Structures are given as structure tokens and as C-alpha cells.
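FORM 12-B: Structure-to-Sequence Request
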């Protein structure tokens, strides 16, 4: 059994906008990992119950109501604080997307500490959709970016809701492209996951969440 730490945004709110983490990006990989016998723990910057982007459990994005049912069951009501996490206890860190990740996860020092430790000790660093935001700022002890020159993906500018990009802290696609080999894949096809190396895996969008779960289960099986 492997131990996986899923990291969620605690949420962001101002006078014009409220956002948080995206349901499918947690629950789809979580279901796959737990079904394969792995343990998934949750963490966020503030701990406690993180703010869900309610759009992610709307009929448009969750037509069957599967993820709303899991959320309503309280499955994600309790998270540990990132500052209290000992990364030595984990084999994988999965950074869940949602626009909230752009605000409170991107430059979180505790998350950077955890990601660097996992990578240095042979663990898997995974991130979905806007979850790669921390990778755009994550530096190693030598000052180099962890993803420098590596192939990555993440939510592309072309998929951002109209008018939202200009209000976000930065463009994820542009920041990743500045450092790494950004690969948006074919936007007409559902599901795009990229391995940068055997320890680094990123997913493009919410519709890649199930594929992320498949990839993580497969990678952990291959490590046995």
C-alpha cells in the first residue's frame, strides 16, 4: 500500500470572485487509488474544510451527481495543515486543481518543501489542471526550477472562461512555458496526461482526472 497526499486549495475570495478546489480532480484519482488499495490523505494551507468551487459539482460538470454525492458525504471536510505534514510519510503528492491553486498554493513554502522532499527521495510529484501552478515557482536548493526543461501540461489559456484570465494572478500556460516544455495536447481530445520523467506527472484539465488516477495506479504498481 502506498500513501498519497492530495493537496487542496483552502479557497480564495474577494469582492468579485470566489473559487477553490475542483471536485473531479480530487475524487476521480482518489477513487482509483483507494480501489487499488492505496491510502489518500488530504492537506491544505489552512487545514480544516477547504473551499470547493461549487461549479465543479454543478449539473454541467458533474451530470451524474457522482462527485456531489461524495462531497456531501464529508469525504473532503477534514484536511491537515501543510505546515504540519511530514513528507517522509508519503510516496506521492497530488496537487489538485481548481483556480484556488493559483492563489494560495502557487508560492506556498510548505508545499514547496513537501514537493522537493518527495522528488529528492524518489517519490512521485503529480499535479492536475491548475494544480501545476506551484511547479511554476518551485526551485531546488541550487536555484534551478524542478520542471526546467521537462515536459509538463496544465490548464491552457484557450480553455479559461471568457474574461477570467485577465483577473487571475498569472497565466498558468505562460508561466509553465517560460520554464518547461509545455504541452497542451490536442484540445479536441478528452484526457491529456504528461510524464516529465518517472517522478513527475501533470494533467491538463478536469476531464483528465480519471486518466491521472489510472496513471498513478499504474506507476505505483510498477514500483512494487
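FORM 12-B RESPONSE
SEQUENCE OUT:
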Amino acid at each position: 500500500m502506498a500513501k498519497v497526499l492530495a493537496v487542496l486549495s483552502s479557497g480564495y475570495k474577494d469582492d468579485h470572485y470566489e473559487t477553490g478546489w475542483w471536485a473531479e480532480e480530487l475524487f476521480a484519482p482518489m477513487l482509483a487509488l483507494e480501489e487499488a488499495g492505496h491510502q489518500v490523505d488530504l492537506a491544505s494551507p489552512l487545514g480544516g474544510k477547504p473551499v470547493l468551487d461549487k461549479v465543479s459539482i454543478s449539473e454541467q460538470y458533474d451530470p451524474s451527481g457522482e462527485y456531489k454525492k461524495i462531497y456531501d458525504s464529508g469525504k473532503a471536510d477534514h484536511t491537515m495543515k501543510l505546515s504540519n505534514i511530514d513528507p517522509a510519510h508519503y510516496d506521492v503528492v497530488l496537487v489538485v486543481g481548481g483556480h484556488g491553486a493559483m492563489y494560495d498554493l502557487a508560492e506556498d513554502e510548505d508545499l514547496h518543501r513537501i514537493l522537493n522532499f518527495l522528488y529528492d527521495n524518489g517519490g512521485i510529484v503529480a499535479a492536475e489542471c491548475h494544480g501545476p501552478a506551484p511547479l511554476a515557482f518551485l526551485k531546488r536548493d541550487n536555484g534551478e526550477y524542478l520542471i526546467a526543461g521537462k515536459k509538463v501540461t496544465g490548464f491552457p489559456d484557450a480553455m479559461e472562461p471568457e474574461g477570467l484570465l485577465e483577473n487571475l494572478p498569472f497565466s498558468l500556460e505562460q508561466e509553465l512555458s517560460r520554464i518547461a516544455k509545455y504541452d497542451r495536447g490536442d484540445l479536441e481530445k478528452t484526457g491529456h496526461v504528461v510524464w516529465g520523467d518517472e517522478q513527475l506527472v501533470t494533467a491538463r484539465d478536469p476531464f483528465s482526472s480519471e486518466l491521472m488516477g489510472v496513471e498513478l495506479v499504474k506507476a505505483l504498481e510498477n514500483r512494487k
